[in-house]
Amino acid sequence: MSKMSKNLARLSDIARVQLNLEMAKMAEIQRREDAQRAKITEHDQEDARIRGVVTSDDVDLTMLAAMPEWTRMRAGQKADAQRSLAEIAAQRETQMRATRKAFGKKDALEKLTAHSKETPRSQEG
User: Which domains does the chain have, with CATH numbers?
Assistant: First the structure.
């Protein structure tokens, strides 16, 4: 194996490790996004359940009095959750670019390594 082939193989290994790292970061972002979406869904389901109680015939008047305050609080919580989800989505896009770049490097280096093994050089440095 020529010196260039050995160097390309080492670079290819480094690129493979880098890709694995970027993919792990991507998986963590996806886990956070899934958790945030689940939190939003849980809030929506709880809100629907509480609205169902409020519209029933046996509703307590103190509960009706507290509804505007509760509604404002829940709207703020939902806005915070949506904002957090948007931030995670932005991080996902940034990470997706880094992952694509790492994949491109790995792929190019693997192709160069394969090509250098197939094409022996007449002069080695």
Answer: 3-117 (1.10.287)
